[in-house]
Amino acid sequence: MEKKRGGGCCVPSLRALRCYAVMFGLCLGLPSSAASSCKRKPVIFNFGDSNSDTGGWSAGLGIDVTLPNRRTFFHEATGWLCDERLTIDFLCESLNTSFLSPYLESLGPNFSNGANFAVSRATTIPRDQPFSLGIQLHQYLDLVSRISGHANLVGKDGFADALYTIDIGQNDLTAQFTNLPYLQVIGNIPIFIEEIRFAIWSIYQSGGKNFWVHNTGQLGCLPYILVTTTHDASDIDELGCLRSRNDAAREFNRLLQSLCEELRSKMKNATIVYVDIFAIKYDLIANYTIHGFENPLKACYNNGTVCEESSCHVSWDGIHYTEAANSFVASRILSTNYSTPPVTFNFFCNV
After folding, report:
1. 26: left (phi over 0), alpha (psi -120 to 50) or beta
2. Under 8 Å between Cβ of 2 and 72
3. pLDDT given for residue 106 in this prediction
4. Contact indicator for 165, 47 with CB cutoff of 8 Å
5. From the candidates 132, 320, 327, 331, which is the catalytic residue?
6. E strands within 8-91?
7. How crowded is the C-beta side of 24, counted as CA atoms within 13 Å?
8. Is 214 one of the catalytic residues?
């Protein structure tokens, strides 16, 4: 149970007990079809931004990510921008494998089950700007070239059999809207998609054949965007989200899905799974009471003030999700209902 800052234990309210019960149920509710053992050791290489960054930003820039981040499960701050586990952590847990070590971690990283190249604030463009998708790709290719003689590094066959997860694009859209009108943002989306194409194709040419691609979430429902974006009533949808930001995310996702379809026809013996994260997160906002949450458009951690039970909240800090929301997202991913083609998450370690 969460502790007060003064050291004493909180007395749980009925509301708190209900929220913890929901969180516990989500953690245990991962579909058994996906949360099963693998025939061979699962290896995952992840590329992305803060939605899947497990310490890369903190390690790469030497920036402390302090409590209350990661207060719920490990009770220490080690780089996650969340109260605890991210969606990628729950996906790893479903395979009974360790959490992914950030590639930029210099103190005792273990890459025997893969590596996490994701870094907070990462974008697809410019390609050569730290820590863009292009830089993450270069880091991966460098890792591949140095596999011999390292006990804590995945073996050569592991790279070919690994799963390559990609979750990026949110920051590109956010940055574009800072200076450009809607139509220009829409016009630039194909540039982002081309960078993702380049990354997937480069990994494929280096021997990778299993890809798991997340589309971007409902940008217009993030509390930070709602608070900092000038808008009028005509731009608010039925959920209270910014219509223009969500429409831009939908266009990004449409082109990303088309890319995945195109690459399936061109990449022989490869599997490319496209996952509709937008639909999962939009459903969570639209039906938050059914799913056991409160105040979906309000951040738990805001201006130094932290809510009592983050397990009741969807948003942790206005941009990133809480552990409870990440658990919900992971459970929906593992259901295969949002995947094209609808294959289980453990397909790559059971073929």
Report:
1. alpha
2. yes
3. 84
4. yes
5. 320
6. 44-48
7. 7
8. no
| C-alpha distance from residue 137 to each of 117, 130, 196 (Å) | 8, 11, 10
The tens digit of pLDDT for each residue in 280-333 reads 999 999 999 999 999 999 999 998 899 988 899 999 999 999 999 999 999 999
Place of tokens 């959920």: 239
Complete DSSP assignment for 285-336: HHTTTTTT-EEEEEESEETTEE-S-GGGEEESSSSSBPHHHHHHHHHHHHTS
d(CA 187, CA 96): 42
Q: How many whole angstroms separate alpha carbon 305 and alpha carbon 321? A: 16
Active-site position among 49, 50, 132, 291: 50
pLDDT at 82 (0 to 100):
82
**Annotated catalytic residue within 53, 161, 172, 317:** 317
Q: What torsion, rounded to 10 degrees, do the Cα atoms 172, 178, 182, 188 define?
A: -40
Tell the residue number behind the tokens 């608010």, with chain if given: 236
Q: What predicted TM-score, i.e. pTM, was given to this entire model?
A: 0.89
| Measured CA distances, 50 to 112, 169, 207 (Å) | 23, 11, 27
The span from the CA of 346 to the CA of 111, in Å, is 19
Please tell me whether residue 24 adopts helix, strand or coil conformation. Answer: helix
**Sequence-ordered strand ranges (E) for the chain:** 44-48, 114-116, 163-167, 210-214, 271-275, 294-299, 301-302, 305-306, 313-315, 339-340
d(CA 290, CA 236): 23
Using DSSP's 3-state secondary structure scheme, residue 45 falls into: strand
Low-confidence ranges of the chain (pLDDT < 70): 1-36, 64-80, 148-149
Residue 83 to residue 321: CA distance in whole angstroms = 8
* CA contacts within 13 A on the Cβ side of 250: 11
